[in-house]
Design goal:
Elements lengths: L1 E6 L10 H18 L3 E4 L13 H11 L3 E4 L2 E2 L5 H14 L4 E6 L6 H5 L3 H5 L2 H13 L1 E2 L2 E2 L10 E5 L2 H9 L4 E3 L5 H17 L10 E8 L3 H18 L15 H12 L3 E3 L1 H15 L3 E5 L6 H19 L4
Parallel strand pairs: 1-2, 1-12, 2-3, 3-5, 4-5, 5-8, 8-9, 10-11, 10-12
Antiparallel strand pairs: 6-7
Helix pairs in contact: 1-12, 2-3, 3-6, 7-8, 9-10, 11-12
């Protein structure tokens, strides 16, 4: 199992300038490499002070040069990008990163950036055409009669973020592995993987289950109760903050403190949190159930720079060795 660190560049609700927030993320990445993590993953959000990375691809390029870790995007928002442009950039990062780059794409969230860069709600709801074009361009190395430069001998690593069975089936149709969304229960993730396998086989694709990628929030503390409360507190605050500066494209009721608490506690049922031994046990359990070969862990949900660094540093020495299944 490869362990990847998500870099949300979360401001934790503060008014810290971008220089500080991005500096925190680079510190997390440096500590992850020292602590024995395998990968770092970047994300894409626009027009909000909650997180400070509008380009997953640009941040990934920087981290490929800054670290020796594998680097992925979770995700580049597919409706915001021309698929052939994404294919070109992926080919470039595949070469300059010596094969360490994974392009993860997804539909994103129904927010105003989709109107600025894409087709609004229509593009959010139906990503099938863009996904097919991206996969075809990466696999064939061309678009219509235009060759992609730089060329790649085979399709670089590509994955689709999914939180539902229909999206899992879409990925299976194109022979693309999944990034299993962090807000989905383990039972639902297993159902998504089964639907993906059935659809992939029906379209003639053979995909190693270890090519799929799990994702979850993550916290370590001296006791399991303390770790879970740390994540519940952080997720509750995150939900109440929302994404200031952006607007939703779908009508949503205002979230109350009680509603945020209930949602945080529901989310906490699907995370990896505990003392080091408990975290290792939960990672082994997920690997046994899902069979994924990689997992993206998200410690920024714990709500502070200090909590993130504690989890990043302790994970390599105290959790990952115990999470390895016996050969």
């Amino acid at each position: 199992m490869k362990h990847g660190l998500m870099l949300f560049t979360d401001s934790f609700g503060s008014d810290a300038p971008s220089t500080d927030v991005l500096g925190w993320a680079l510190t997390y990445a440096a500590e992850a490499e020292r602590a024995g993590w395998d990968e770092v993953w970047t994300t894409e959000h626009h027009f909000t002070s909650a997180v400070h990375t509008p380009s997953a691809i640009a941040m990934a390029a920087f981290l490929l040069g800054r670290t020796g870790l594998g680097v992925g995007t979770a995700v580049a928002v597919l409706p915001n990008h021309h698929p052939v442009a994404l294919a070109e950039q992926t080919a470039l990062l595949h070469h300059v990163g010596d094969g360490r780059f994974t392009l993860g794409v997804g539909r994103g969230q129904p927010r105003g950036d989709l109107e600025v860069f894409g087709d609004g709600l229509a593009g959010y709801r139906d990503i099938s055409g863009r996904l097919a074009l991206l996969e075809s361009a990466l696999r064939a190395g061309e678009f219509e009669d235009v060759r992609l430069v730089p060329d790649v001998p085979e399709r670089p690593p590509l994955a689709l973020s999914a939180a539902s069975v229909p999206t899992a089936r879409l990925a299976g149709q194109h022979g693309i592995p999944l990034i299993l969304g962090p807000f989905v229960s383990l039972a639902d993730k297993r159902a998504m993987l089964d639907a993906h396998a059935e659809t992939a086989a029906g379209h003639g694709h053979r995909i190693d289950p270890a090519d799929h990628i799990d994702s979850t929030y993550f916290a370590i503390a001296d006791t399991t109760d303390a770790a879970r409360e740390l994540l519940i507190d952080g997720l509750r605050a995150q939900l109440l903050r929302g994404a200031p500066g952006t607007r939703s494209l779908v009508e949503q009721p205002e979230l109350t403190a009680e509603g945020a608490d209930a949602m945080a506690r529901k989310l906490a049922a699907n995370v990896v949190a505990g003392d080091p031994d408990e975290c290792a046990r939960q990672l082994r359990e997920r690997e046994e159930l899902l069979g994924t070969g990689r997992i993206i862990l998200m410690p920024e949900g714990a709500g502070s720079v200090e909590a993130v660094l504690t989890t990043v540093r302790r994970a390599g020495a105290e959790v990952f060795p115990g999470a390895c299944r016996p050969a």
